[in-house]
Amino acid sequence: QVEDEAEWTICASCGIKFNETCLECTPNECTKCSGNQFLNNGVCRDCEVQAGCLECSQQGCLKCDAGYFLDDKNGTAPAKCTKCGDVLDNCKECFSADKCSACTHDFFKL
Question: What is the chain's mean pLDDT, rounded?
Answer without folding.
Answer: 82
